[in-house]
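Troubleshooting: if your tokenizer reports a length mismatch, compare your output against this known-good record of 287 residues.
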Amino acid sequence: MPDRVLVTGAGGFVGGHLVTALENEGYEVVRHSLQDGDISRCTLPYDGVSYVFHLAARTFVPDSWQITREFYDTNVLGAINVLEFCRRHKCPLAIMSSYVYGRPRYLPINEEHPVEAFNPYAHTKILAEQAARFYAGQFGFEVAVIRPFNLYGVGQSSHFLIPTLLHQALGPGDTITVADTRPKRDFLHVRDLVALLLLMARRRAAGVYNAGSGVSTSIGELVELINESAPSRKRLASAARVRANEVLETVADCSKAAAELGWSPRILMAEGIRELVQDARSNLRVG
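Known-good structure output:
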């Protein structure tokens, strides 16, 4: 691992966990967050950086249908701005992508699976990946692309699924209501993702890597795990709203990261949910 690293999106969910992990290992971290300038056009005036983690992005999928231009500005032009920084400094880069596989043609999904954009957010990530590969090939620096599946952990925005379920489980009422109990997703704890990012920097990895648990968990199973850790059990109710083009299951094949980097996820879903319930209850008591 280089001594001085730049983290864009340092104030975000993944960025906050990554910065803490880097500093705990003794590295000097240069942080860039929104208050430091628009990532799509600011100058990034940082010297002496020998590795970059590019995490800055707009991420909430429903918003990508409403403020579409802003998603392309931040996620595509922002990536190019960071790639230009790496080009000038000959600096290797790990760039955060997303789930970009659309409706799975097979399970588990490996990195060779065709990409497909179901929403503007995913399309911006595909374009950013393409730009990263082009810069790496043309300008001669290493680029690792990380494709995380469904992330969760302490500090995630309340807009996302698991924080929403926790709010219902620990709030008033006796019911947890979901749109559809059937969809199954591959959930990865944010600390497992951070462990992968650290390995990528140490090994100067290049190429595309999935990041997931290798296990799919349904919405109904998630609620059961939350109920097992919550102080009182609540009834699960489905609103029976089935989204158009709903993907019923995703599972990541992470054998490439295991073989090339020695990485495997360590935090079981039940353990991660217990931690979240405990953290949420502590915050409620403090509040």
